[in-house]
Design a protein that fits this description.
The chain is α/β, with parallel strands linked by helices. It is built from 13 helices and eleven strands. The mean pLDDT is 96. Bound molecules: flavin mononucleotide (FMN). The site of flavin mononucleotide has 28 residues, from β7.
């Protein structure tokens, strides 16, 4: 697959090797990838995705069955690589609970909320036989990489820096997903403490990774229309991956206040925050996220404790469509996200990309 030659060769090579009719991927988004959204993008010839972080094996199986019933295109299943167990500081947690109680009638359990068991999720990933398994925040253990390869499943590894891309390629990743700092949702940083420091924009990160690794590179972060997609292909991408750009689609189950706020958000209206989960991610600058970043606010508890503490608040905010406290992840190109059916959005982005650079 040519790295520097014609972008069409890279794009065609990606689809021939990994699947899909067009090199356009729905981004894996934990809690925001209903089967209907993936199926719609797959019907347009692109890739579906599930952010399976919080899905136990049975839920993963149900998700895959629903998507396969609606479309036969390729999709990726995605997990976060677990971080070492966190130590909670009782004083910090008490201060955080006091802060949160100004925002919500009910603060969640301060005990670390264990997600589904990682090893069982990994077994379920293999059993589901997706076209690709993806990762963020680290690399899969070597034994699991071997299992993926033995089962003919490609590994798409997210990297936010050149070093992470090299580590992932050396660990056997078939594709690097270069996640620019513009991206909505959590940063894929391997070192949780480095997320705020490591902020490479996609324009600088993508060609650096393309030049450094021998595997195809998927571009993600701030791509939400044909201009962004075209730029990514010119910078060496073999495919583009879009998250926020699909959140306003009919099939997205984001709350209507979130969808509305995305369309009004200028690039400066998002911010990096740990205030929802304890891990750094890019979200709309809601009143809660802004207040949590003020110098006199207590620091968020580590992940996953903070996620547990804010759970009742974010659940209630979604139920009452209250954007001021909603966990509303968003990339810097949020305003470009289109409404309408996701297959139509995907087809339009691809068609317009071809018109620009085809
Ligand atoms: C709501 C939301 C949830 C996300 N969850 C995940 C996730 O679970 N795993 C992952 O690798 N990336 C996750 N991401 C990041 C996306 O995969 C992708 O990197 C990002 O959406 C690209 O930037 P964009 O939103 O500007 O398109 C999430 C992004 C959003 C917006």
């Amino acid at each position: 697959m040519s790295k520097r030659g014609d972008w069409r060769d890279r794009a065609r090579g990606f689809c021939e090797r990994f699947g899909g009719q067009v090199p356009l991927l729905l981004a894996p988004m934990a809690g925001a990838c209903p089967p209907a959204l993936s199926a719609a993008v797959m019907r347009a010839g692109g890739w579906g995705a599930a952010g399976a972080l919080l899905m136990p094996p049975e839920e993963m199986a149900r998700w895959c069955a629903a998507v396969r019933e609606a479309s036969d295109g390729p999709f990726q299943l995605n997990l976060w690589i677990p971080e070492p167990e966190v130590r909670a500081n009782a004083g910090e947690i008490a201060a955080q609970i006091a802060f949160l109680s100004h925002w919500t009638g009910e603060v969640g359990d301060p005990a670390p909320v264990g997600g589904p068991d990682f090893a069982s999720q990994c077994d379920a990933l293999i059993e589901a036989r997706p076209a690709a398994i993806s990762s963020m925040m680290g690399v899969y253990p070597p034994a699991f990489v071997e299992r993926m390869k033995a089962n003919g499943i490609a590994w798409f590894a997210t990297a936010t820096t050149l070093d992470e891309a090299r580590i992932a390629a050396d660990a056997g990743a078939d594709v690097i997903v270069a996640q620019g700092a513009e991206a909505g949702g959590h940063r894929g940083s391997f070192d949780p403490a480095a997320s705020e420091r490591d902020q490479c924009g996609l324009f600088a990160l993508l060609p650096a990774i393309v030049d450094a690794v021998d595997v195809p590179v998927v571009a993600t972060g701030g791509i939400a229309d044909a201009r962004g997609a075209a730029a990514a292909f010119m910078l060496g991408a073999s495919a583009v991956q879009i998250g926020t750009g699909f959140l306003r689609a009919d099939e997205s189950d984001a709350a209507s206040a979130w969808k509305d706020a995305l369309s009004a958000a200028q690039p400066g209206d998002t911010m990096l925050t740990r205030a929802y989960t304890g891990r750094c991610g890019r979200a709309l600058a809601t009143q809660y996220a802004i207040a949590a970043a003020s110098p006199d606010a207590p620091p968020p508890a580590p992940h996953p404790i903070q996620r547990g503490l804010t759970k009742p608040m974010t659940r209630n905010a979604k139920a009452s469509n209250d954007i001021s406290r909603m966990q509303a992840w968003a990339g810097q190109s949020a305003r470009l996200a289109r409404s309408g059916d996701a297959a139509g959005v995907a087809r339009a982005i691809w068609q317009e990309t071809l018109e620009l650079i085809g």
